[in-house]
């Protein structure tokens, strides 16, 4: 983290998936078809939750993976073993993507380990619920934007010298960007910025043959929720407000990232997919 932003209590940040009960479902649901054979992908926040499911699914489809995470070493090593079990290669790197130097280190690791970069998945993020807008401190506001928005800019900027025509960037936004969230004011604001960034960047990079799309998950069972400050009552009824009446699992979101990363979506850029339990929102 840059020295202008103090570190928050780590208990408020994305926690260990190994401690969750029940465990999120990350396992790919079908055999691979080598749609990412020979590709190299960076997955930020790849240690757990949606990031873990994406990393393992990409590996099943033939990609080697750089797993970026904050400080959850146990989860990251577990994900690396899962990737390797699929016959792919994995490297992990810890650090705060809100620091430009860390973004550079992540990209440098991809190039030094695998020689190239084809896919950038900007998945890492954090949230801190507050009941009132006046409860959002300067420290929290800066931190949330630093991680969720600045970190994404940094990763794209550092990756650009290595991305070629045919490359894909997939950014994780959220259903909260579309329907709002009364207790996640700063978080939902960052997701609005991410969606605008995705649409604008897609136009900026179209002539380079680089596609940029987004995924806007609804309530998904990951460490972000219990470790991000959600109340026990909210967790007890987590996801029940969706038309499907339940939270989603990471392995129900990962196929959206795969579709946007591979040639199946070759005529799509600037778009957002919505694995959100049936909530109808504007595109």
The neighbouring-strand order within the major sheet is 3-2-1-4-5-6-7
Our estimate of the beta-strand percent is 5-15%
The succession of helices and strands, N to C, reads: EHEHEHEHEHHEHHE
Radius of gyration: 17 Å
**Fraction in helix:** 25-40%
Briefly, what CATH class? Alpha Beta
The geometry reads as globular
Class by SSE composition:
alpha/beta
Number of strands: 7
Average residue pLDDT: 90
Uncertain runs: 1-12
- The CATH topology label is Rossmann fold
Supply the CATH architecture.
3-Layer(aba) Sandwich
| Cα end-to-end separation | 33 Å
Domains (count): 1
Q: How would you sum up the major sheet?
A: 7 strands, parallel
Quick one: CATH superfamily? NAD(P)-binding Rossmann-like Domain
Question: So how many helices?
Answer: 8
What features would you highlight for this structure?
7-stranded parallel sheet, Rossmann fold, 8 helices, 283 residues
Describe the protein's architecture and organization:
- The chain is an alpha/beta fold and 283 residues long.
- The protein has a single domain, classed as 3-Layer(aba) Sandwich (Rossmann fold).
- 37% of the residues lie in helices and 11% in strands.
- It is built from 8 helices and 7 strands.
- The protein has helices at 49-60, 73-85, 100-114, 138-159, 176-179, 185-205, 232-236, 250-261, and strands spanning 40-44, 64-69, 90-94, 119-122, 168-172, 211-215, 272-273.
- Helix 2 links the parallel strand 2 (64-69) and strand 3 (90-94).
- Helix 1 (49-60) packs across helix 8 (250-261).
- The relative contact order is 0.16.
- Keywords: Oxidoreductase.
- Pfam families: adh_short_C2 (PF13561).
- Belongs to the short-chain dehydrogenases/reductases (SDR) family.
- This is NAD(P)-dependent oxidoreductase.
- It comes from Blastomonas fulva.
């Amino acid at each position: 983290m840059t020295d202008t932003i103090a570190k928050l209590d780590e208990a408020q940040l994305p926690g260990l998936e190994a401690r969750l009960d029940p465990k999120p479902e990350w396992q790919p649901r079908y055999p691979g078809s080598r749609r990412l054979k020979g590709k190299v992908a960076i997955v930020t926040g790849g240690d757990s939750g949606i990031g873990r499911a994406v990393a393992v699914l990409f590996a099943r489809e033939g990609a080697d993976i750089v797993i970026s995470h904050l400080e959850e070493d146990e989860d990251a090593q577990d994900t690396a073993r899962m990737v390797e079990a699929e016959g792919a290669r994995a490297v992990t790197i810890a650090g705060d993507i809100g620091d430009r130097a860390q973004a550079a280190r992540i990209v440098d690791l991809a190039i030094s380990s695998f020689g190239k970069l084809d896919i950038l998945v900007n998945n890492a993020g954090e949230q801190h619920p507050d009941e009132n807008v006046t409860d959002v401190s300067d420290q929290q506001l800066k931190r949330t934007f630093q991680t969720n928005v600045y970190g994404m800019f940094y990763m794209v900027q550092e990756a650009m010298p290595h991305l070629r025509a045919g490359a894909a960037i997939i950014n994780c936004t959220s259903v909260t960007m579309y329907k709002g969230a009364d207790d996640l004011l700063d978080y939902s604001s960052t997701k609005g910025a991410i969606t605008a960034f995705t649409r604008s960047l897609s136009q900026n990079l179209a002539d380079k043959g680089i596609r940029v799309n987004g995924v806007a998950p609804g309530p998904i069972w990951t460490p972000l929720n219990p470790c991000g400050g959600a109340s026990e009552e909210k967790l007890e009824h987590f996801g029940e407000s969706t038309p499907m009446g339940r939270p989603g699992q990471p392995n129900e979101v990962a196929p959206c990232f795969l579709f946007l990363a591979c040639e199946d979506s070759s005529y799509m850029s600037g778009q957002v997919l919505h694995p959100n339990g049936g909530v109808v929102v504007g595109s």
